[in-house]
Known about the structure:
Helix content: 10-25%
CATH superfamily of the largest domain: Nucleoside Triphosphate Pyrophosphohydrolase
CATH topology of the largest domain: Nucleoside Triphosphate Pyrophosphohydrolase
Number of domains: 2
CATH class of the largest domain: Alpha Beta
Structural class: alpha+beta
Strand content: 35-45%
Number of helices: 3
CATH architecture of the largest domain: Alpha-Beta Complex
Number of strands: 11
Radius of gyration: 20 Å
Amino acid sequence: MKYQWRLDKHLTLFEKYFRLDELSITHELFAGGFSPVFTREIFERGVVVAVLPYDPRRDRVVLIEQFRAGAIDDKDGPWLIECVAGVIDSGESEEQVALRESIEEAGCKISELQVISRYYVSPGGTSEHCSLFCGIVDSEGVGGIHGLPHEHEDIRVMTIDAAEAFGWVREGKIRSSATIIALQWLQLNQARLMRQAVKLAAD
């Protein structure tokens, strides 16, 4: 069912690398009629693309670890274990971002992309939504330090058994939502991806 809403006013409060907007809105109520006009500040982030590189022949995933300013107050420190991720540049598709970022951040080449989900990260306060993929890779030789220096990226790349990564989710060692979602999806689809890899190798 579609509901109606109206934008009464739109102000940009701050704009630099990120943008903060103030919206004055009224919307249809479940009980009927419309709400009074109210304001919300929205962190304008747009589309983020994330990809979990997975090697079904070896049953290993590629994860990255890097400094995250948003986790600066985390008791375990602001280095998080994550999927590969990046924002869409002008003229790029989601799939192109996934392929590009996998090379830039993890040094691995994706042979196939599978869609996991497209979801809003925290819609109460930000427009950011994530297009999440699983990327089929050959993990042999993948690892080391990657990232673009001019973007202040210092990224440690690791390949681990999928079972160990699933354990990290259970233990709370992974605290990035996209990575948790991707690994839980992989746990559900792992057998299918491994069967496909065996069939492809046999053909």
